[in-house]
Amino acid sequence: MRPGKDYIVFPLDLASMAEALTYVRRLGDAVGLFKVGLELFIRCGPDVVAAIRSESAAGVFLDLKLHDIPQTVARAMAGVAALGVDLVTVHCGEDPRMLPAAVAAAGAATRVLAVTVLTSVADADLRGAGLDPGLVPDVRQLVRRRAEAARQAGCAGVVCSPWEAAAIKAAAGAGFLVVTPGIRPAWEGVGSQDQRRVTTPAEAVRAGADYLVVGRPIRDAADPVEAARRIAAEIEAAR
Ligand code: C5P
Question: Does residue 177 contact residue 211 with C-beta atoms inside 8 Å?
Answer without folding.
Answer: yes
